Amino acid sequence: MNEQRAQAYVNLIEQLLTSADGEELNKILQANQELIDPEFLQVMENYATGLEQQGHNNPAAWLRNIAQQLGQFLNPQARSIEEYQGFLLEVLQAEAEINDGRAIITDNDYYYKNMQYKVSLKQTEEGYAVWCPGLPGCASQGTTKEEALNNIQDAIVSYLEVAEELNQGVESCYVEVELNHA
């Protein structure tokens, strides 16, 4: 990686960290799409490590969360502009929920204090696909219906265990499962 590109990565990271709101974050990401690549994600991780060493744990966790979501977007299976826009909306939603205290940051994931999810279980040619925005570990594709439902249950149990470990508790727990046939 050349020095100019490395500096561009650092500048982009600093812009992301100082963005005033979700709309600004969205604009920054859209304006710098050409910089979002696997090397950028590695620089983000290194920058987050530096922040942690300076005692800035929340910005480091936030940066890792964004990097993780960008990494999912860089997956070659993500193809359309609609997917990219949906991804950006998820990033903005996560940022808002963390900033207003409805979510808890731990490691690279964030967890909600009030668990209210609409889980989409879609039957496809490959099997069942599960999508549950915001619930870490609750996404799978090409599984049986039973495996998909177990995946949802495991993600909920994992969420509750993390909330308990953080002594945060869960104020409410509501999960709606919607079955869609392809």
Automatic annotation (TrEMBL):
Name of one Pfam family that matches: HicB_lk_antitox
Q: This protein's superkingdom?
A: Bacteria
Alphabetized InterPro entries for the sequence = HicB-like, TA_system_antitoxin, TTHA1013/TTHA0281-like
Outline the extent of the HicB-like antitoxin of toxin-antitoxin system domain. Answer: 122-172
The name on file for this protein is HicB-like antitoxin of toxin-antitoxin system domain-containing protein
